[in-house]
Amino acid sequence: MTSAAAHRPPLAAGWLASAPPVLTLAQRHWLFRPGALTAAALEIGQVRLRVLAEYADGAPADEAHAMRIAPGAPVWVREVLMSVDGIDSVPARSLTPLRASHGAWQGMRRLLTRPLADMLYHDSTVIRSPFACRRLASPVPFHATAAGALAANGRRCDAERVWARRSVFWRQGQPLLVAECFLPDFWRLVAGRAAPSPLPHQRTPR
Length: 206
Description:
The chain has six helices and seven strands. Helices cover about 20% and strands about 30% of the residues. The chain has helices at about 25-30, 35-40, 60-65, 115-120, 140-150, 185-190; strands at about 45-60, 75-85, 85-95, 125-130, 130-135, 165-170, 175-180. A hairpin with a 2-residue loop joins strand 2 and strand 3. The longest helix is centred in the C-terminal third of the chain and has 12 residues, at about 140-150. Strands 1, 2, 3, 4, 5, 6 and 7 form a seven-stranded antiparallel sheet that branches. The chain is globular.
């Protein structure tokens, strides 16, 4: 994958390439903020990552579409939950073709509780696609991750009100899809705070 077009994944149904008018200014900022999310969260408070699950699976159609792979193709999945000052704030779901998890993206299997940023932003060959965002709904694979995090905090019915973003990182022609969503308590944490300064981390095609 060498052309700019190759790094702009096709939008699956429901995903938006730009912020819809319904979003607040804070939501627009965080859903489309470039750079490492963990670095920005550290400006808010103490950040901790918990690994929820790591497993091999078949790629759901929604995510396969974004990675330009066949639905059902074997992938490696990693799901984590970021807390800020002890408050569960941002679930994240990452996946890459299973073969790539032993090759271009093998570092994904060794992260433990370290953020993906540790292997994404120190390699000048890594290219990140533009963001897409959407309100989560049950057909989206990431919905179950968010719903599980909400249920653990007594918010069983809020998943459909959660906004998520995702982008695809490319290394050696191999995709790594990263989706993140912001739980209701995250917006309470950042309410009234100035938005962190964007970091010069994102490398996207012109």
